[in-house]
């Protein structure tokens, strides 16, 4: 699916993660800021990628600022951002959840 | 510890006093009306005793007047993140995903920590940016120079409106270089709107094949939006702003785009522009050469061709005199829109600035 509008979810507080999804052209492009990027950068990207895959989002620019979020938090923030970006806020995709 | 974010309404004098006192404690002491009135929204962070422990404001898409108190518990970092986060959320709601911050060098790390990228840094301060569109998407949107272009030059102009003087400057640059970028200042505060100014520059340089006219976006001489609030002295403020602007141009545009020269007109009249030109000459070389072209003079006289004069003539309804000052394309436009332009002037649009 195509991203309709830039969308943001999450905060910059400790144990959270902020994700901004906007239109892209060259697949999924990540821009990750995290203190633990070295240790968990790939895991964070993989978690977000799996959510985007579930929504059939093929092209997107993904800006992530991680403050030590756990996987379920990352997933929840990614789902919210995807729903907002696709303008599906009021139609939760139960299969992804 | 549960700090709470609340809106601060600065039109309430008590709230404003409290806010000013808090910022003054944190070392921000300039509250000129111009700066404060530009604020769209202010938030405060309160601790569980109801004490103000942090604040931040939004003006357009710029974050300003941000400060948090450090009580020694190590919570100031968390508070800072909470304030920035809340401001970003509000900006996102307003549809702004591109955010700018102007701050002092010591806060660079704090902002980079929450995803901001530094655009330019000087001894006085720095500009950071976060979100999309950003400088990369801006650069990608510019017309590509031909592969065989060896010498590339740039001119930044407000062109309010495009005169024979501007045309002369562009012609010189086009003659001496393979490719010329003309950036038109984006800030929409002039008599002629940004769309009109850009259109007139395009029309007026149409015959020059190696000239690309581009909108300067948020990255060129939008120094009206730069805050002067932590510097009191007017000249220092200008110096600070122009140094940032020049550094941004050098680092983010000249380097990636391969621009080797920047053309300027000499500036006998405007103090601000003269200071700006001085700063460019200090900061840009050696990587970018500054070429100063003497201003075009009218016919036989000693008067330089200036857009200020064009605007004065429009006000005085002396349209016929303009043929000496502006190219035909601009003249046709002014003649066509004369009433509308005079209307704008009588409604209070200033015409004697830049």
Automatic annotation (TrEMBL), chain A:
Keywords: Cytoplasm, Lyase, Phosphoprotein. It is found in: Cytoplasm. It comes from the Bacteria. It holds the Pfam family ACP. Covalent carrier of the coenzyme of citrate lyase. Oligomer with a subunit composition of (alpha,beta,gamma)6. Belongs to the CitD family. NCBIfam families: citD, PRK13253.1. This is Citrate lyase acyl carrier protein. It comes from Fructobacillus fructosus. The gene is citD.
